[in-house]
Inverse folding.
């Protein structure tokens, strides 16, 4: 935490890299400071599994390489890994009881690349069960607490979801960066709720191999960190073609950090009129207008655009995602790995295992998905949703003929209390109203912290880019970051 005498947990990834290179501190000192911070912040329930021995072993290897003058891009950087990424020999639960005891015999491609580039693992972080949720309250391991609290109100707030443990650990300064996955906003919305930067790359930019699947045509891994530069550094290590993933795109990975500082002069920024939704908090609208002004001041030209099928995005998403989930989750039957309940017959064992292993939200989505894929409903629901998806993608294609990037709010509100919306699935699903379109179209998006609500909670602005044009988002995101000067921190790390 910031109170740590060394101040090492307050460093950014870029500062850590420079400090290690200059031998101002060691990777082992960095690891020890973060291990201590993780222990002191257990009340957040951010971690499912802590791996301090592994972190110290990784750090010692980093120190040896640095001493030899052989430093890698992520050397000595302590990361929290969303518990959706398979980590060899380390418990991987996807936030679900049904994966109790599952220690994969293999490593996900994304985490393997982070270790290849020198990062250290602090442990696996909590998440909504099977990434299904926008609040991190559906986890079998209990809700994650947002390190932020409202002014004069001590109620626990949600950190957003499903990458809530990832976002909370970065915001609380107990991890320097974290991996997340984004199916309908699950990196960007938690980043907005916790006052950090979250980046969802283009579909296919990062391998999905070794990531527990939710909705295969929507899921995409990405980084969460405390600065745009840190996300650029992390994404370069996470991205790249993978022959093991048929959806992975064989395209060179740019040096994202190299584009920073180029600004937005001459850039055209789309402002979609359909994102002004009923019931949006006035402070969100005000922040959006402020974001437009910041980009304009930096030399960009705001252009009003139309994305006419936006209002159909949520209904389409909540047909397509559960349909794919019902198919992906069929493999969890107690036969090969994870939880196994007794049954007199094989079918009874399947039924008992799934009934005991899956939480309420997962069961709800599996049932919706099975229903929309069933005979007689497939055409009426699933095929129509896929047609809507194509129309949403076309809206973006047409908009990007006129603009270079699109600016919107990230979420329709600031973080809410753990018990405020969780009993109302529809209210929960509306959290994704500004983010799902990006997943349906397979585009990249970034959320940058840009201000505080009247209650003193972080609010984020979202930039959406053309497919594989992550560099433009990093450039524009950095301009927003510099203009916003967001230096606020949660009370638990203030000082």
């Amino acid at each position: 935490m910031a109170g740590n005498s060394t101040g090492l947990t307050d460093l950014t990834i870029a500062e850590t890299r420079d400090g290690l290179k200059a031998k101002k501190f060691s990777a082992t000192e960095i690891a020890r400071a973060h291990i201590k911070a993780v222990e002191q912040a257990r009340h957040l329930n951010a971690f499912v599994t802590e791996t301090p021995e592994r972190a110290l072993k990784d750090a010692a290897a980093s120190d040896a390489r640095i001493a030899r003058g052989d430093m890698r891009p992520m050397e000595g950087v302590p990361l929290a890994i969303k518990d959706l990424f398979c980590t060899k020999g380390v418990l991987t639960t996807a936030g679900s009881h049904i994966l109790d005891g599952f220690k994969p015999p293999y490593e996900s491609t994304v985490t393997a690349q982070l270790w290849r580039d020198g990062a250290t693992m602090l442990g696996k972080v909590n998440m909504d069960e099977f990434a299904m949720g926008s609040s991190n309250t559906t986890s079998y391991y209990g809700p994650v607490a947002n390190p932020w609290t409202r002014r004069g109100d001590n109620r626990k707030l949600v950190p957003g979801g499903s990458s809530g443990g990832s976002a909370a650990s970065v915001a609380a300064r107990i991890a320097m960066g974290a991996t997340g996955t984004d199916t309908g906003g699950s990196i960007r919305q938690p980043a907005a709720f916790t006052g950090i930067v979250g980046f969802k790359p283009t579909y296919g930019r990062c391998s999905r191999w070794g990531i527990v699947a939710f909705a295969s045509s929507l899921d995409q891994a990405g980084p969460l960190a405390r600065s745009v530069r840190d996300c650029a550094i992390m994404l370069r290590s996470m991205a790249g073609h993978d022959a093991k993933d048929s959806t992975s795109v064989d395209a060179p990975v740019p040096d994202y950090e190299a584009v920073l500082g180029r600004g937005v002069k001459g850039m055209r920024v789309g402002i979609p009129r359909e994102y002004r939704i009923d019931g949006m908090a006035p402070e969100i609208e005000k922040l959006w207008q402020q974001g437009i002004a910041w980009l304009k001041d930096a030399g960009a030209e705001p252009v009003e655009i139309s994305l006419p099928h936006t209002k159909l995005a949520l209904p389409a998403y909540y047909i397509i995602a559960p349909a794919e989930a019902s198919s992906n989750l069929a493999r969890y039957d107690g036969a090969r790995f994870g939880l196994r309940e007794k049954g007199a017959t094989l079918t009874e064992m399947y039924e008992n295992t799934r009934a005991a292993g899956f939480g309420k939200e997962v069961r709800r989505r599996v049932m919706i998905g099975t229903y929309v894929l069933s005979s007689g409903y497939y055409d009426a629901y699933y095929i129509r949703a896929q047609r809507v998806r194509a129309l949403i993608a076309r809206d973006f294609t047409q908009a990007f003929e006129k603009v270079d990037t699109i600016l919107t709010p990230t979420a329709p509100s600031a973080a809410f209390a753990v018990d405020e919306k969780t009993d109302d699935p529809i209210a929960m699903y509306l959290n994704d109203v500004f983010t799902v379109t990006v997943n349906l179209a397979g585009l990249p998006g970034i959320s940058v912290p840009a201000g505080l609500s009247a209650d003193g909670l972080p609010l984020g602005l979202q930039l959406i880019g053309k497919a594989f044009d992550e560099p433009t988002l990093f450039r524009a995101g950095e301009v927003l970051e510099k203009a916003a000067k967001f230096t606020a921190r949660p009370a638990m790390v203030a000082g």
Q: What stands out?
A: The first strand starts at residue 47 and ends at 50. Residues 1-5 have pLDDT under 50 and may be disordered.
